[in-house]
Amino acid sequence: MLWLTCFLQGKNADKPQVTGQVLFRQHYSHGRLEAIFYLDGFPLDNNQSGRAIHIHELGDLSNGCDSTGGHYNPFGVNHPRHPGDFGNFFPKEGKIRKYKTNLSATMFGPYSIMGRSVVIHEQEDDMGKGNNKASLENGNAGKRLACCVIGICNKNLWEEKLSEVTDKKKRGLNKRT
Ligand SMILES: [Cu+2]
Ligand SMILES: [Zn+2]
């Protein structure tokens, strides 16, 4: 088992100022990747559009999120079939708290996501249905709001955030009953 984290510094000049982290876990060597998206700083309005999140090819932040390259695309396929195409996320009260399983990216072997980056976009991912070239490359997700480089972390960080995310879900369910 290996754990990875991607810590967002929120240093971009643009609004909103997104902070938080994306965590990954995977069983060696053929387990499916799991991820926790734990992000803050979105507008409080619950009716805003979705925000696309992807893995980009490079872990180079020398020119902010602009130097992270395009979507990580080791097999030369169209968007949204890249391993790090995580789709759209809908913040609630300015936060994203999401646990996803069975993702197609991997942290092992020649196609590892380690050392690459996670990018949070301003707009919704059109999932390749935009009828233009950009749609099949990047989903027309717009500006890059925040980004981070994926590195190794320990188990504790994962366990802590996982219990927070799943507890929140339970509380949410209780509220509705
Ligand atoms: Cu992207
Ligand atoms: Zn993509």
TrEMBL record:
Taxonomy, superkingdom: Eukaryota
Cofactor remark: Binds 1 copper ion per subunit.
Subcellular location: Golgi apparatus, trans-Golgi network; Secreted, Extracellular space
Needed cofactors: Cu cation; Zn(2+)
EC number: 1.15.1.1
One Pfam entry name: Sod_Cu
Catalysis: reaction(s): 2 superoxide + 2 H(+) = H2O2 + O2
GO CC terms in record: extracellular region; Golgi apparatus
Coiled-coil region: none
GO terms assigned for molecular function: copper ion binding; superoxide dismutase activity
Keyword Electron transport: no
Residue ranges of domain Superoxide dismutase copper/zinc binding in the record: 18-150
Family annotation (InterPro entries): SOD-like_Cu/Zn_dom_sf, SOD_Cu/Zn_/chaperone, SOD_Cu/Zn_BS, SOD_Cu_Zn_dom
Keywords: Antioxidant, Copper, Disulfide bond, Glycoprotein, Golgi apparatus, Metal-binding, Oxidoreductase, Secreted, Signal, Zinc
Family: Belongs to the Cu-Zn superoxide dismutase family.
Function: Destroys radicals which are normally produced within the cells and which are toxic to biological systems. Protect the extracellular space from toxic effect of reactive oxygen intermediates by converting superoxide radicals into hydrogen peroxide and oxygen.
PANTHER family according to UniProt: SUPEROXIDE DISMUTASE CU-ZN -RELATED
Name of the featured protein: Superoxide dismutase [Cu-Zn]
Source organism per UniProt: Accipiter nisus
